[in-house]
Amino acid sequence: MASKNKSIMPLAGVAFAALAFCASCRSPEPLKGRPEPSARTFTSAAVEAAIEETSKRIKDPRLREMFEATYPNTLDTTVKGDGYIITGDIDAMWLRDSAAQVWPYLKHLKDDPGLASLVRGIILKQFAAIRLDPYANAFYMDESKDSEWESDLTDMRPGVHERKWEVDSLCYPLRLAYGYWETTGDGSIFGKEWEDTLRKIVAAFREQQRRDGLKTSYKFQRNTLHPLDSLENYGYGPPARPVGLVASAFRPSDDAVKLPFNVPSNFFAADVLAKAGEICRAEGCDEELAAECESLSYEISAALREYAIVKTKKWGKVYAYEVDGFGGAILMDDANAPSLLSLPYLCGVDRNDPVYVNTRKMILSPDGNPYFFKGKAISGIGSPHTGYGKVWPMSLIMRILTSVDDKEKLSALKMLADTTGGTLFMHEGIDADDPSVFTRPWFAWANTLFGEAVMEMARQGLLE
Question: Which architecture, in CATH terms, is 82-370?
Answer without folding.
Answer: Alpha/alpha barrel (1.50)
